[in-house]
Amino acid sequence: MQIKRLISLIIIIIFCSISLSGCYSAQGLETLAYAVAIGIDKGDNDKLKLSFQFAILGNSSSSGGGSSQSQESTVTSVDCASIDSGISLVDNYISKKVNLSHCKAIIISEELAYEGVSEYIFTLVNDLEMRPDCNIIISRCDASDYLENSKPTLESVSARYYELTLNSSEYTGFTEDVTLSDFYSDMLSTTTQPHAILGGINTSSENSSNNDIAPYDLQGSYKAGETPIKSETVLENMGLAVFNHDRLVGELNGMESLCHLLIVNKFKSATISIPSPFNSEAIINLYLTTPKDTESSVELINGTPYITCNVFVTGNITSLDENLDYSTEENLKLIEDYTNSYLEQNILSYLYKTSKEYKCDIANFGRHVIGNYLTWNDWIESDWLYNYQNSFFSVNVNSNIRNR
């Protein structure tokens, strides 16, 4: 028994020694440079201009180039032939290994996106450090400028900062939380096309309200970088970038993005303005939520898609008029009719814009059609992504308006 106990004790000591011993090849925090965001532009002297926004940990300082926009981060840029070669060049320059495990945003310039992004998306998806929930942002300005202007007033520049910035889609509906995995799967799909977050720099000194747009349409008419807001935070994500396969083909504004969220059942809540049925010069503000998912169906008649969408919303009146009683059944019914009509017009505009102008099914209506085909070859030969441009739509909005 004593020999068995002695052997057991020796084995325990050996395992403990192994577990407590250090590893010579292990990489500590001081040897890694954590990128919280990556920017990809067309290069000045090479194919690409790759920019990294690095988080500065503790009291450490980056030895890399670029300009520093806060005490918590710094931006380093390099012209290179590919993403991998750019990372290697930066590794050598800053004397640390670039680590992408905390990267929260990939910013691609519109100029580059119009030429195609599949090469860069495949490379990043294949990187073991890159997280699939990293957001894809298409910038209306240079991606390097987007990173240089990351000057948050309410948080530090970190992976958490980009995550919180995009949470606004849950209570405004003006954009969507699109991830690397979402974009990648949509790019390979035969039933839908990819889209991404639309970003930009808010040059408020150049922006002003458009007097040609009705007051109730003004709020959602802006795209990233266009809102007449003055703030130290100049980055703005509003709207969506629409792709045909891997090439950018157009943009959606805030209201069109809200309609998209309603159709794809990702809408959480938002406040919108509708024309007042009681005063042609007034508006009524509504806080909208969805009590149930939108019901969509697709019917092929002689090969032409006829798409029907039944949308359900609940609205609380947030504006008041001392001369009106919003609690009467008659007035609430009138506001419901105006809400239904207003949303139906905007949703139809969004659907026809994506189908006729952009020729892209970013709402994944193809998933309703694929079951009609007996074999995979039959489905591929039908070429849904091309046929979608021939679609006709019927939209019915059912609202339930309450005066809280």
Put the structure in a nutshell:
30% of the residues lie in helices and 27% in strands.
Structural features, described:
- This protein is α/β, with parallel strands linked by helices and 404 residues long.
- It is built from 13 helices and 14 strands.
- It has helices spanning 2-20, 83-94, 110-113, 118-125, 143-148, 159-165, 169-172, 180-188, 215-218, 254-263, 329-357, 376-382, 384-387, and strands at residues 32-42, 48-55, 73-80, 97-99, 105-109, 135-139, 195-201, 235-244, 247-252, 269-275, 283-289, 295-301, 304-317, 392-402.
- The strands form 2 sheets. Strands 1, 2, 3, 4, 5, 6, 7, 8 and 9 form a 9-stranded mixed beta sheet that branches.
- Helix 10 crosses helix 11.
- The radius of gyration is 26 Å and the shape is globular.
- 39% of the residues are buried.
- Mean pLDDT is 85; it is low at 21-26 and 60-71.
Keywords, please?
GMP Synthetase, Chain A, domain 3, 404 residues, alpha/beta, 30% helix, 9-stranded mixed β-sheet, 2 domains, 13 helices, 5-stranded mixed β-sheet
Mean of the pLDDT scores? Answer: 85
Strand portion, in percent? 25-35%
Oligomer: single chain
**Sheet with most strands:** 9 strands, mixed
**Strand tally, please?**
14
Q: What is the CA–CA distance across the termini?
A: 79 Å
Instruction: Indicate the percent of residues in helices.
Output: 25-40%
Note poorly predicted spans: 21-26, 60-71
Based on helices, strands and strand pairing, what is the structural class? alpha/beta
What is the count of DSSP helices, taking H or I runs of 4+ residues? 13
Please tell me what the overall shape is: globular
Topology as H/E string?
Answer: HEEEHEEHHEHHHHEHEEHEEEEHHHE
**For the CA atoms, what is the radius of gyration?**
26 Å
Number of folding domains?
2
